Amino acid sequence: MIEGNEIHRKLTCHCGAVELELTLPKGLEKLRRCNCSICSRRNAVVASVDLENLRIVKGHNDLKEYTFNTHEAKHFFCSRCGIYTHHQRRSVPTEYGFNIACLEGVKIEDYINVPYFDGKNNHPKDIQ
Ligand SMILES: [Zn+2]
Fold first, then answer.
1. How far apart are the CA of 79 and the centre of ligand 1, in A?
2. Disulfide engineering: 18 pairs with which of 4, 13, 36, 46, CB 3.0-4.6 Å?
3. Distance 86 CA to ligand 1 centre (A)
4. What is the pLDDT of residues 48-67, one digit of tens each?
5. How far apart are CA 52 and CA 22, in angstroms?
6. CA 114, CA 23: separation in Å to the nearest integer?
7. DSSP string, 71-85
């Protein structure tokens, strides 16, 4: 688990080409998995950060963007090692979701009970 008083966190891909700095004043917020078509395939546990609280320290040219369907969500991954780092949410476009397994100091095995968000059948942008 993350210590509560450390608000600047480093997030890296596997090869280290991409490094992000996150400002997380309240720690890991909105922890979840998701069962939508892309999230179920990558099966990452994600948390949320406001757009202005994510800074690309290095790897601008190595980050690749992937979009599909409505092209609202923007999914980013390292084009060298293939690791998903973060995405701009479709549900809340003022936020990024990020891969907590890429966050320095996280033991992913501590997050085994993070629940699934039903993005497949009950995505807030798909409900009238
Ligand atoms: Zn990489």
1. 6
2. 13
3. 13
4. 999 999 999 999 999 999 99
5. 9
6. 22
7. --SEEEEETTT--EE
Residue 56 alpha carbon to ligand 1 centre in Å: 13
How far does the centroid of ligand 1 lie from the alpha carbon of residue 16, in Å?
5
Architecture of domain 8-108: Beta Complex (2.170)
Alpha helices in 1-128 (DSSP H): 37-42
Q: How far is the CA of 22 from the centre of ligand 1 (A)?
A: 17
Locate the domains of the chain by residue range.
8-108
Average pLDDT, the chain: 92
What phi and psi values does residue 40 have, to the nearest 5 degrees?
-65, -30
Q: Which residue has the higher pLDDT, 118 or 122?
A: 118
Ligand 1 centroid – CA 99 distance (Å): 13
